[in-house]
Queue: 4 jobs
Job 1
Amino acid sequence: MDGYFAGQPHHRLRQQVRDFAEAEVRPRVPAMEESRSVHHELSRLIARQGWLGATIGADFGGMGVGHLGKTVIIEELSRVSAAMGAMVQASQLGAAKILHFGSEVQKKTWLPPIAAGECLPTIAVTEPESGGHVLGMAATAVRDGDDYVLNGRKVFVGNSHVGDLHGVVVRTGPGARGLSAFLVEAGRPGLRVGPEQPTMGLHGFGFGELSFEGCRVPAANRLGEEGDGLAVAYSSSVLYGRANLTAVSLGLHQAILEETTRFCEERRRYGEPLHALPSVRLKLGRLQSRLMTARLTAYHAVHLLDRGLPCDAELMNAKLVNVEWAMDSARDAMEIHAAAGLFTDRPVERFLRDAHHMFAPAGTSDVQLLRLAEAALGTAKGQWSERLADAVRLDAVP
C-alpha cells in the first residue's frame, strides 16, 4: 500500500492501462482532434478490455476492483486522451444505475455484456430547459398496459452516439416522487439520436441529444419502482459522476505536468533550460503541489467509498479540487509555453480545452461548495454513500 491508498494490484492495473493507452490511444489522438467526431472504433476497443466492469463483481463477469481501481483506469486513459477517459467514465455511470437499482433479471441480462465490453450503457437525465435542476424535467413516461410510452428530450448524454442501452429518467407523476427510470435499448422505435455537434474539447467523445416520440418500453425495463427516478439520478451523479470526473481531471493534470516539465527541459533561455528561470520554477512547483494534493483527495474519497463509509463530502471536495486545479494548472502551463502553446503541434492547448469540459457535469464548483457548506453547517439531508453502502462496498479490497 502506498501513500495514495493503492496496493500492488492497483499498480499492475495502472501499468496495464498505461501500456494500452500509449500503444492504442495516443496514435489515434491526432485523427480525433482533426475530425472532432465520435471515435466509434476506439470506444469499442477500450470497452472490450473489460474496464467498464471495474465496479461489477465477478459473479456478473466484472473486474471487481472497486472505485479506486476504476479511478486508476479512467486516470490513465485520460492522461493520454481525456476524451477516451470521458467515454469510460460515462459508461460507468450507465452501469451504476443497474448495479444499485436493477432487478436480478436486469443485472443478469445487462451486467455481463457491459463487463465484456459488448454493451455501452449511458444515463440520460439532463434536459434543455431544466439543465441540472432534476425536478424541473418535463420528459414523460405514461403507463399503457404492460408498457410505458416515453416522450421528451434529453441532452448532454455521454456516449449518446455509441451507447447501446440508455438509462433514462423521466416524469411519471408530480413532485419528487414522480420521477422514474427506464432502460431503453438503442434500437427501439421512437428513440432518435440527434446529429453530432462540434465541441470545444473532448474530441472523440460524444455527448449529444436523445429524443423520444411515442417510444414504447416494456414495464420490465423500469429500474426499481415508480418514483425511484430521483434516487437513480442523484446516486449515479454523487457516487459515480463526481468520482469519475475527478479521475478524468486527475489524468489531465498528470499530462499537463509531464508535458510542461518536458517543454521546460527542451526549451532554452539565456543558455540554460527554461526551468532555470525562477518564475518558471515557481509555476512548476505549483503544478506539482496541486497535483499531489488533488490525487490525495481523489484517492482518499474512493478509498472510503470502496469500504462503504460515509464520504459524500469527500467526493464533492475531490471533484471541486481536481477540476479547479486542473484548469488552473492548464492556464499556468499555457503561460509557461507562451506563444508555443497556441499551436496544435503541442497538446497543452488541448489540455486547456478538455479541462473545461469537467466543470459542469455532476454539479459545477458552486454546487459542490454549496453542498460542502451544508456539511459544515450540519444541514445535509443524509448521504448517498451511506444509503447505498452495501452496493458499493468491496468484498475484498487489495
Job 2
Amino acid sequence: MAVLILAIFCVGTAELAPSGMLGDLSRDLSVSIPTAGLLVTVYALTVVVGGPLVTAATTRVRRKYLLVGLLLVSVAGNVVSSLAPTFALLVVGRMLTAVIHGTFLAVCVVIAGSMADKGKEGSAIAGTQLGINLATVLGVPLGTLVAQQLNWRATFGSVAVLALLATVLILLVIPDNGGTSGSSAAHELRVFRKWQVMGTVLATVLCSGGMFTLITYMVPLLTDVGDFPSAWVPAVLVAYGLGSIAGNAIGGRCADRSVDAAVLGLSSALAVVCLLYWVAAPSPVGGAAFLILFSTATFALIPGLQAKVLSAAADAPTLSLTANMSAFGLGAALGSWAGGQIIDQGLGIRAVTVGAAAFTALGALLIAQTVHSGRRRQRAVDHQDHDGTKERQPADSGSTAAPAS
C-alpha cells in the first residue's frame, strides 16, 4: 500500500504543483497569471477526455502492468514539462501527465473499495486519497520551495524522478495476481442510465468547480489580497495540506455512517466556508485560517462523492469512477477558467471566493435532489414489496393491482 501511496503522491503533486508557482511560470514564460492558470485548466480537461478513453482501452490489462505503463507516461509528461522552452510545449507536457490521472486513481479506488469490510467503504476510499493529501501537504509546498530556490523546471524534474522510482517499486513489490482493471467497457457503460450515478457525477462537476475556482488562485489570494508574506506561503501550504488530511479522515468516517448525509452536509458546509472566506480574505491571519478551513471542508467532501458513485455503480465500478474523476477534472477546468474570468472582468482576486461558493451551493442543491430521488424510489420499492407479500395477483402477468386503501 505504501508503494501505491507514493505513486498517487507523484500523480497528485504533478496535478497541483502549478498552483503554487503561477507567479514564477508567468514571469519566466512571459504570460499573465490567468494564462498561467490555464495549465490547471488544460490538465483538468485532459483528465476529463482522456480518463474514460484510457479506461475503456485498458479494461483487459492486468492491474500491475497497467499501473506501470500509466506511471511511465506520467514520467514522460513531467520530463517534457521540465524541459519545455515555451508555454505551448509546457501545455503538451501537462497533457501527457494528465492523460493517465483518472484511470490510475480509479483502479486504486476500486481495489480499496473491494477490500473493505461492509460499511467501511468510505474509510477505505479515504485511505487511497492519502497520497493526494500528502501531495498537498508535502508535494505542493516543497514544489513551491524548489521553484523559489531553484526554478519551476526543477519542480517538474523532481516529480519525474520520484514517479520513476515509484514505477520501479511497483514492478518489484506489487504482486501480479492476474486481475484486470474491470469488466468490458460495454457492460460498464450501462451504469450511466442510473440517475443516482449521473446526478452524483454532475454534482461532482459543480463541487469541483467551486474547489478549483479558489484552489487555482489561493496563493495570489493570500499574497495580493491578504498581504501575506511570500516567504511564509510554503508554511501555509503545509498547514493547508494538514487540513486536507484531517478533512479526508472526517469525510471517510462520515461516509461510513451515511453516504447521503455526508455528501449533502459537507457540500453545504463547503459553500458556507467559501462565502465566509470573502469576509476573511483581506486579513493575513483570517485569510490563512480560512484557507486551512477550506482545505478541510474540501477533502472531507471528496471521499463521500466517490463512495456515493461506487455504491450506486457497484456492478460496474471502474468506468463510473473514472467518469467521476473526469467530473473532478471538468469541474477543475470550469473553476480555474471561471476564476480567471472573474479576475479579468475587474472583480478582483478576492471575488473568486464568491464564485467558489456559488458553484458549490449549486452542487449541494443537486446532491439534495439525488438524495431525495433515491429515498423516494426506495420507499416505492419497499411499498411495492410490501403489497406483493399481501396479495399475489395478475400483476405477475403485467396487470396493475389496485393500490391499497
Job 3
Amino acid sequence: MASTLHSFASAADLAGNLADKVADTLSAAIAARGTASIAVSGGSTPKVFFQALSTRDIAWDKVTITLVDERFVPADNPRSNHLLVDANLLQNKAKAAHFLPLYQDAASAEEAARLATEKTRAISSPFDIVILGMGGDGHTASFFPGGSNLAKALDASTPRGIITMEAEGAGEPRLTFTFSSLEDAALLVLHIEGEGKKDVLAKAEGSGDEAEMPIRAVLRRATSPVEIYWAP
C-alpha cells in the first residue's frame, strides 16, 4: 500500500497539524455514526501532539481512546504508556473521552492480554484512527525484531485482540494489539521525528524481511494509505 509523507519544520508544527487531522477525522466519524475510536502509541515522541490534541473542540464524550501497546506495568509506573496518555492527552477538553487501558491487574502478562482483549471488544472495528511510532530497529507497536510472538502478531489471520511480546532490550513483557487489529484503520498514521528515523524509514521502504523490520508489515499491508508525519 502506498504511503504519503508529510514533512514539517518542527515537532510543534507537526503536532498542531496532526492534531487538526485527527480532530477532523474523529468528528467525521462521530457525525456518521455517533462514536469514534483511536489507538495511540506511547514513548516520548507523541507528548506534544497529545497536548495539542487535548485542546481540540471535539465531542470527546463520544470518543474511545486506547493504546496500540503497553508495558506490563501498573498505570502509576513511570514507564507506563497509560501514565503518558493520562498526563498529556486526557487533559483539557479531552478529559471527557473514554480511555480503555491495556494493562490489567493479573498474575501474568498472558492473563492480562486475555482480559484486555475482552475489554477492548467494546470498541467497534475497525479503528477510526491508529497512530503508530517507530523505533530505530524498525519496530512498531510492540512488534520487535526477534520478539517471542512476532510471527503470530504479524500474521493477518491472527484474530483481532491483544497478545504478549517479549524481546531483548524491550524491558518488561509487552501487551500489543495484533496487526489484524490495526491494519484496516480508516486513518493509519506513522508519527516519527528525527533525521535518524527518516533513514530507518527509507530502509524499511526498501526490500527485505518483515521480521527484520516489522514496520514493513504496516507499510506493505495496511489496507489504506499510511500517512507519515515527520519532523526533524
Job 4
Amino acid sequence: MKVDVYKLPQNSPDDLTALEAAIASGKINPQQIVAIMGKTEGNGCVNDFTRGFAVQTLKNYLANFVGQDKSAAIVYVMSGGTEGALSPHLTIFTSQPSQPDIPTRMALALGVIHTRDFTPAEIGSLIMVKEVALAVNQAIAAAGIAKDDVHFIQIKCPLVTSRDRLLDEDHDAKSVSKSITSYQSMGYSRGASALGVAVALGEVQLEDLTEADICQNYALYSTVASTSAGVELRNCEILVLGNAPTSTSNFVIGHSVMQHALDAEAVIKAIASTGQTSDRVVNIFAKAEADPSGELLGRRHTMMDDSDINHTRMARAVVGAVVASIVQDPMVYVSGGAEHQGPSGGGPVAAIARID
C-alpha cells in the first residue's frame, strides 16, 4: 500500500480551488482519494451547516471524476470550528497498490470503512459501541496494520435531532435519544464511538462495559480515538491510520496523549515518535476538551460556565494555539469534545510527517 497525504487551504466551506489545482496538475489523482478530513469555519455544534456544505461540495465535485458511487464511498470527516488561530483546510488521503519494485518499510497505511446507519435510539448506546468496534477491527485487518501500530482512528458519527426524537416515539422511552438534548447527543455519539475504538484495540474489555459507563465513567478511554459528531450523516465513517511494514508510503505517523489542554510536551512527543523533525510534519491531529473538573493545572477555568460561547469552541481555541505554536502553522486539525478520547481534559494527538 502506498498512502499519500496532502494539506490544502480553503477560503470557504465550498472552496475547492487548491484541490482543483492539485488535480489539474496531476499532483492528486482523484481516483485514489479514499478519505478527506477538514476543518470548517462553522460553530461545530448541532446547527453547523458548514460541515454538510463542505461534504456535499466535495462529493458532487469528485463524482465528476469517479462517479457517484465511488464518491460516496470516500470517508468525509468535516470538523466544524476554527476558533482562535485555527485555519480552515482539507487533508486529503490517497491510497494505491505498491509497485512491485519499490522496497517496503514501516510507514503509513490506512483503512476506511462505513458502518450501517443507526436509529436515533442506538446513537450513544452500547449497540453503537459494538458496531463501531466490529467496523474498526475490519478496517485494521484490511489495512494490514498490527493493533500496536495503530496511531490514530478518526470517526465521523451521527447525532440526534429534535425531529429524530419525534420520529422515534415507537422506541423505548428510556433510550438515550429520549433523555438527552440534541447537543448532548453529540457527546454521547462521540463517546460511544470512542469506546468502540477502545474495545477494538483491547483498551477496554466489552464485558466490563455497561450502558451506564458511556459519558459517565471517564476512566475508560481510548488513547488513539478521535470522534466528531454531525447532523450530516446517519452512520459512522471511520479512518484508521497506522504504520505497516508492507507500506511504500513516504509518510509516517506517530502519536501521544495530551494530559491537559496546555500539554505542549505531548505534541512534541507525538512529532518525535515519527522519527522526523517538526519541519517535516504535514499535519497534527488533536482532540480538545474543557476539563470537566473546572480546573486546568490547578487553576479554575470558566470554559464550562460561559453561556455565550460553547465550551468545545473554547477548548479548540486553546489546544489549537498550543499545537500551532509548536509547528508554527495554524492550519492544524483540532476537534472539540473528547469524551472517552484520552483522559478527562486531555486527548490523543497524532503527527503525520514526510520521510522521503
